[in-house]
Amino acid sequence: MKKKLFTEAQIVAVLKQYEGGREAMDVCREYGISKAILFNWRTKYSGMATTHLKALKALQEENRRLKQM
Questions:
Q1: Per-residue CA distances from 33 to 22, 48, 60 (Å)
Q2: 3-class secondary-structure state, position 52
Q3: Which InterPro entries does this UniProt record tie to the protein (predicted)?
């Protein structure tokens, strides 16, 4: 089975739909993901906006670069 790749912005959009009141199975069916993936995303990205994700990505990149020094 082909693995689908979602960007962080897409993941946040999916989570906003779920948190907006849609049923978990409806969201999962629409995007072709399992409930386990949805709930894993919720634990990792809960409460984040796309601006927070960009800052987090920048910090992770800086941390990776500093560790290589």
A1: 15, 20, 26
A2: helix
A3: Homeodomain-like_sf, Transposase_8, Transposase_8_domain
Q: Is the pTM of this model over 0.85?
A: no
Alpha helices in 1-69 (DSSP H): 8-19, 24-31, 35-45, 50-68
**Which residue has tokens 């990205």?**
45
d(CA 15, CA 51): 15
The first and second tokens of residue 55, run together, are 């800052």
What would the pLDDT profile of 21-48 be if each residue is shown by its tens digit? 999 999 999 999 999 999 999 998 877 7
Q: How far apart are CA 34 and CA 19, in angstroms?
A: 16
CA distances from 38 to 4, 48, 62, 64 (A): 13, 15, 28, 27
